């Protein structure tokens, strides 16, 4: 299995993220981080500089002065927006996983809608407060539609889903699935097939000769799907899952103890490979394994899930990469179609149902539930067994 090259839009989103992270970046650095040639980086930079997203400096690029915005700030309305509709976007985090989803949404909304971003959490009440502020119950101007990533487990989450479905405006869920109403009808959504992603990781480990494997997860909305996909493929291929542990996240004070327990059990069970969700925990496990004298991948192969920073580990980690930018872009596309907005020659206009209108747009459009496939990026941490 070979490493797949990112799509141009995804690659440019990652390029922008890298420049934002460091303030400025050289072509050589971007080429290494993105895994593409300097020629490709220069071509991308030229396009981003031309559109005003980046500013050219000697040997690289930087964010234009005054362009950086504080996390969670609303997207400023550009003058002369031609009465574009307003989309509210509520995400649970602004510092991991979701920034690339936000960039994908922002790119798709450009020229079609104004995007207002609010950061919430994984708390139902916080999500409700942020949505309420956007829809106008507190005297705000209101939005025309919503993109939301709400909690999905527990009775409070079910109640939140009913409330979202009852709002008098279209709602599209991102990386979530909820049903509401007396017939439990699904809300519109764009989500990653995380079970497919973890199953792909299991197939990769089997292909590399591993038979005794382990799964390490921390509790997230994706955990259930990741576990089900990994175990389904392990059962299909006859892999022995000798380790299945749920840990606290790296940021928790209990992580050091959980990580030590994972490595102790790898030794005790003879596990030769792990799938670890997510990158941060995977990198920390590799570091602690190396401190114990375990060689990665010779003694323990590691595959991370998320591919936010996996490429920067030593060794670089093989990782499952969800299509984060495509999630945001797809959610905007669903919502603008629902609002009856169509693109023509790079411009966006409301579809009035007249001649030439889009029959797949508007309020009568069937509910769409889009599932996108992640892909595996193969790096040094999962070399074949000797």
Based on the structure, what is the oligomeric state of the protein chains? single chain
Strand fraction band? 15-25%
Give the domain tally. 3
- The run of helices and strands is HEHHEEEHEHEHEEEEHEHEHEHEEHEEEE
Mean pLDDT: 86
Which outline best applies?
globular
What is the terminal separation in angstroms? 17 Å
What is the CATH homology-level superfamily of the largest domain? Response regulator
Helix proportion of residues, in percent? 25-40%
User: What's the architecture of the largest domain in CATH terms?
Assistant: 3-Layer(aba) Sandwich
Question: Could you characterize the architecture of this molecule?
Answer:
- The chain is an alpha/beta fold.
- It has 3 domains: 8-62, Orthogonal Bundle (Arc Repressor Mutant, subunit A), CATH 1.10.10.10; 86-192 and 367-372, Rossmann fold; 194-322 and 375-382, Response regulator (Rossmann fold, 3-Layer(aba) Sandwich).
- It is 37% helix and 21% strand.
- It has helices spanning 8-22, 27-34, 38-50, 98-109, 124-135, 155-166, 194-207, 223-237, 255-269, 279-291, 324-338, and strands at 24-26, 55-57, 60-62, 86-91, 114-119, 145-148, 171-174, 179-180, 185-186, 188-192, 212-218, 240-247, 273-277, 301-305, 318-321, 341-344, 347-350, 369-372, 375-377.
- The strands form 5 sheets. A 6-stranded parallel beta sheet has the order 5-4-6-7-10-18, with helices on both faces. A 6-stranded mixed beta sheet has the order 12-11-13-14-15-19, sandwiched between helices. It has a 3-stranded antiparallel beta sheet with strand order 1-3-2.
- Helix 9 (255-269) crosses helix 10.
- It is globular and about 60 Å long.
- The chain starts with 7 loop residues before the first helix and ends in a 9-residue tail after the last strand.
């Amino acid at each position: 299995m070979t490493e797949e090259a990112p799509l141009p839009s995804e690659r440019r989103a990652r390029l922008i993220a890298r420049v934002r992270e460091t303030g400025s970046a050289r072509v050589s650095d971007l080429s290494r981080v993105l895994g593409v040639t300097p020629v490709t980086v220069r071509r991308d930079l030229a396009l981003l500089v031309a559109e005003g997203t980046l500013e050219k400096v000697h040997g690289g690029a930087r964010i234009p002065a005054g362009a950086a915005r504080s996390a969670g700030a609303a997207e400023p309305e550009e003058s002369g927006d031609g009465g574009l509709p307003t989309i509210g976007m509520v995400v649970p985090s602004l510092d991991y996983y979701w920034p690339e989803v936000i960039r994908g949404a922002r790119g798709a909304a450009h020229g079609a809608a104004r995007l207002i971003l609010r950061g919430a959490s994984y708390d139902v009440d916080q999500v409700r407060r942020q949505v309420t502020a956007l829809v106008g119950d507190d005297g705000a101007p209101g939005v025309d539609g919503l993109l939301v990533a709400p909690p999905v487990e527990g009775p409070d989450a079910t109640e939140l889903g009913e409330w979202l479905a009852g709002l008098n405006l279209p709602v599209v869920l991102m990386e979530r699935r909820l049903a509401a109403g007396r017939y439990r009808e699904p809300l519109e959504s764009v989500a990653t097939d995380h079970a497919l992603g973890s199953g792909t990781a299991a197939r990769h480990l089997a292909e590399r000769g591993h038979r005794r494997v382990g799964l390490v997860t921390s509790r997230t909305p994706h955990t259930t799907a990741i576990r089900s996909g990994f175990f389904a493929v392990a059962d299909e291929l006859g892999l022995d899952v000798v380790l299945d542990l749920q840990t606290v996240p790296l940021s928790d004070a209990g992580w050091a103890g959980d990580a030590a327990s994972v490595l102790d059990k790898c030794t005790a069970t003879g596990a030769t490979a792990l799938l670890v969700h997510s990158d941060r925990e995977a990198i920390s496990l590799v570091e602690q394994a190396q401190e114990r004298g375990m060689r990665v991948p010779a003694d323990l192969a590691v595959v991370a899930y998320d591919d936010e920073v996996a490429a920067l580990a030593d060794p670089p980690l093989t990782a499952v990469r969800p299509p984060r930018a495509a999630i945001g872009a797809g959610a905007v596309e669903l919502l603008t179609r629902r609002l009856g907005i169509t693109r023509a020659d790079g411009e966006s206009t409301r579809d009035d149902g007249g001649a030439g209108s889009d029959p797949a747009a508007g309020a009568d459009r069937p509910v769409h539930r889009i599932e996108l496939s992640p892909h595996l990026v193969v790096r040094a941490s999962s070399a074949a067994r000797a």
